[in-house]
Every structure is written in structure tokens, then in C-alpha cells.
Automatic annotation (TrEMBL):
Species this chain originates from: Rhodohalobacter mucosus
EC number: 5.3.1.9
Name of the featured protein: Glucose-6-phosphate isomerase
Gene3D superfamilies associated with the record: Glucose-6-phosphate isomerase like protein, domain 1
Broad EC category: isomerase
Single biological process term from Gene Ontology: glycolytic process
Amino acid sequence: MIKTDVDGARQFIDDEEYTKTYEMAENAFRQVEQASGPGNNWLGWRRILKEPNDAELERIERHAAEIRKNADIFIICGIGGSYTGAKAIIESLTSGFEGSGLEILYAGHHMGGRYLHDLMEYLKSPREDGEPKRVYLNVISKSGSTLETALAFRTIRAWMHEEYGDEAKNRIVATTGESGGVLNNIIEEEGYAKYVIPGDIGGRFSVLTPVGLLPVAVAGIDIQTLYYGAVAEYELTESDPGKILEYATIRYILHKNGYALDVIGSFEPEMMGFAAWTQQLLGESEGKEGKGLFPATASYSTDLHSIGQMIQQGQRNMLETLFVIEKPISDLKITSMSDNTDELGYLEGKTFHEINHSAQEGTVQAHLEGGVPVIRVILEKLNAQQIGRFIYFYELMTAVYVYMLDVNPFNQPGVENYKQAMYRLLGKKD
Ligand SMILES: O=P(O)(O)OC[C@H]1O[C@H](O)[C@H](O)[C@@H](O)[C@@H]1O
């Protein structure tokens, strides 16, 4: 179960307003449950947990094991919902310092030429033993036409075909919509392996489809445990959505009362990928029709030394969401020393977890005193099961809360505007 601690936000909310608004949250949940709200053909993220596709999970596991055996580098080529979730899971559950074994790299998430140039140089450079690097590529795009992803894919696959010849087609895997889109034409022509993103699941809700599951399995994470964690949270919240409704109610009231920003962060750097994932999930879902809380992110305690000042004493229009991990991720202790020149002797014997926890508690106290409502979303442990639960928890909370705003959570019409202007400048026909 994902737990929440909303005491730090409730003190900013009137009881009567809370009770009245909670009924709205119940109605919004019913809209999700009965598929009766706007965008009701985009609820596949619930369907896949109600009826898990074990055959697909097994296919992904088999394929990932083969890639892990043969690859030096696995490139995740996608943007937005087509990479944020996989990146968040991988960063939360694997160490960044493995140093050997399979390396996971990212492409197609921006159009910086230097990054892609340097990535290509790195791919082309030999391994330490002088052998060429064995590169695998997973291009992920629901529409199959997103420019950032398509350009990086063109660059990398052209090189892979040159480098590996016919073998390239066994090293390139495509994850896209069932049909249509340029990517499907390429897959057909080249014979790449394909995974389908179901038509009723939008990008930012797609992490528990092959979009996220294949890269995560390639990273060595147990996707069965992850997936069934989400299933367990789905089942729990179907019969008891109380925590979700409480959270959505509070967010709705704060929004209505003029709050403009939700600063989403964690004292665990491992959770910052999820701050980015949540940022897209909430931002593209609620930021329409002049509504929505801007989802900002803050990484603690790092950012206490920069925007912490603003959170404490800037304009009073922000709430804060903290992702908390209850059980220590590490038991690393403060180093004992014979002298106390650095004056840190008073911390000897304590773990970093204890100190980080005190920093968190102190920050929450200070922010509450400074007038910032704080919501804590709590995972018991940092493991695949809890991460699966966390993903569904946020997907459902987002849908419920955005229905309360009387907004369709599942489209993103505003994203098209920059694309049209950009394509005009680039001289794209039609
Ligand atoms: O998977 P794709 O079709 O390439 O889309 C990738 C991303 O870009 C779009 O512009 C949307 O704003 C996002 O919601 C989406 O996740």
C-alpha cells in the first residue's frame, strides 16, 4: 500500500470545505470507475491491470534476457511518456555506479546536436578489449512521428546498419502504436521486432506497457514484481480509494484557493526520476483551460541550498509534495575518526539515512511554519513492488483530481502549438 501523510496540508484547509469537496472527489472517482468522463476511451492503463497480459510480460522477459546477454549498450530512444517512466524506474532501482555490464543510454529526448554527436562517437569507439561495442536500440514512439525521437533514430539506425549489416535488424526493437505512423512503415520495411502500445493508453500513462517494461527488464529489474505491485494497488484502490480521494480533495481545494505551484521532490535522489515522471503526468493532464497547479521539481537536500530560499519565503502560492522512503535504502554510517578537527564527531555512529531523515523533518517543520502545505507520499521500501504501486497510485490520483477540475485528463492539445510553429519554420510540407 502507498501511504500518505496529509496533516501538513489539512491545517491549511477548512473542515467544512473539505467535507463538501470530498464528495466531488467521490463523483470523480465514479467517473473513472464507470468510464463516464471526458476522454473515457483512454482508460487502458486501468484495463491492463484488471486483465494482466502474462504472455506479453513473458515475451518481454525472454527478449530482455537475450539483449542482456548480447549487448554492451542499450539505447532508449524516446521522449515524454515514451522514456520518462522507464528512466524513473531504472534510476530508482539500479545503482548509477555499476561500472561494468550493460550500459543504458538515452537518445531522442531533445535535439541537441552535440549530445547526439558525442553519443555516436562513443558508440563507434571500441571496448576496452579493442572489440567493437555491441549496441542495441529500442525506439519508442506511440505516434511514430515525434521529431526528436525520429531524428535520433535515423542517425543511430543508419550507423547500426552500416556497422552490423543484416544483423542490425536483430538489434533494433520498435515500440509503437498498432498501426499507422511512419515508424510502422519502417518496421515493415526493415523487419524489426515490434511491441504494441495499446490504442487506449496515452503516452504519460504508458509506463506499464512495453514502453517502460522492455527497457526496465533490460536493466535487470524484475518486471513481474513491478507489474503485480501496480495490480495490487489497483485492486486495493478499487475497493478502498480513500487515500486517493483525500489527496485529490486537498489538491483541488488548494488549487481553488489560489495556489499555483506544486513543488514535487524528495530527499532520496533515487526518486527524482519519478519527480520528472509525475511532472509530465500531472502537467499534461491538468494544465488546460487556464487551470492547473504548475508541477515544479526540487531535489533535496541539494535544492535547499538554492530554491529552498524561495520555498521558505517567496510568494505564498505553493504547496509541496515529498516522496518519502520509510526503510533505509542504505545503512552507510558516518566515518569514525580519531580527531575531531572537522567538528562532526557528534554525528559519529549515525547513519546517512538518520541524518537525511532529520533534514527532511526539519525542512517540513520550517516549510509549514513558512506557510507551505506539505503532502507526503510514502513508500515503505525502495523496491520494484512499491514502485509498481506508486505508479498506479499517481495515475489514479491524477485522473480523479483532473476530473474534479472538470478537465479531460487524457489529451494535450496545447502541445501541438509549438509543433505547428516549428514545422512552419522548418518548411515541412502539409
Ligand atoms: O510517443 P510519442 O508519440 O513519440 O510521444 C511522445 C510525447 O510527445 C508528445 O508531444 C506528447 O506531448 C507527450 O504526451 C508524449 O508522451
